[in-house]
Amino acid sequence: MIFYLGPLVLGFLLGFILGTRIKPVPESKLKFDKEVYAIVVIVAIIIAYYQGPFPYYQDLPLASGILSGIVGIIIGKLTFGR
After folding, report:
1. pTM of the full structure
2. What is the pLDDT of residues 50-67, one digit of tens each?
3. How far is the C-alpha of 4 from the C-alpha of 50, rounded, in Å?
């Protein structure tokens, strides 16, 4: 099984940048709890499964760029979220 680093790295970097830009707005009273992160990950896995891998990639039956992007968003939000 061969893993292609291009979609993984690019998806993670874009997700990380987007995650750092997420700001909490006190007026909205929205909170990102553990349940919200779990739901986002589950929905991302479903979307990545239905989208399938990039053309000619045979590493996983999932779109690995989407999954690494979601992981990047979550990590960026937790580490540098404003």
Report:
1. 0.78
2. 888 877 777 778 888 888
3. 19
